[in-house]
Each structure stands twice: as C-alpha cells, then as structure tokens.
C-alpha cells in the first residue's frame, strides 16, 4: 500500500480546513468544491474533494456487490478513517491503492 503525500501552500490548507474536514467525514459532500467560492480556486480543496469522491464511489460500489461488498466495505472504512485522520492533521495523503492513480476533479 503506497501512499503519496502531496505538498500544498499552508495558507491554502488553513483557509479551507473546516470544509475539507467536512468532506472527509461525509464523502458525499465532495461537491462543495464546486459550490463554495473560497474553495473553487484552492488546489488543496480540489485534492481533498477528489479523495472524498473516490471514497464515495468506493462506498457505492461496496453497496452494489452482494457478497464481496462486506470485505470491500471493511477496506472502505479503514481508508475513510485514514482520510479523516490525515485531513485533521493537515496532511495531503492519498487514499491507499487508488488515490494517487485516479484524479477525477482537477
């Protein structure tokens, strides 16, 4: 499991910290980056929105798969908690396995 840690401007992180924590706790709020004016031009917010979107899609896929969904859901919960901890600590860590390979929100 390789995690990529990206570097962002500390002022950008501090300015959008609260909204990014909300996106980490509730991945369905990934769309906030498109709605909130202060987040539209923030590279850190777009990064965190992308990670939240990946987690949201993972949760949807886990719900669709009948039997293997439970194993997938356990992995989702671990990745979700890791994302929350990284966001609260102002770290830009990607979701393990897929976070550094998939970039939907640019």
Write a brief caption for the model.
The chain is mainly α.
Architecture overview:
- The protein is mostly helical and 106 residues long.
- It has helices at 10-15, 17-25, 32-35, 37-40, 43-64, 69-88.
- The protein is built from 6 helices and no strands.
- The chain is globular and about 45 Å long.
- Major sheet: none
Write down the overall geometry. globular
Low-confidence parts lasting 5 or more residues at pLDDT below 50?
none
Structural class: mainly alpha
Which tags fit this structure?
single chain, about 110 residues, mainly alpha, 6 helices, about 0% strand
What is the element layout, followed by pairings?
Blueprint: H1 10-15, H2 17-25, H3 32-35, H4 37-40, H5 43-64, H6 69-88
Helix pairs in contact: 2-5, 2-6, 5-6
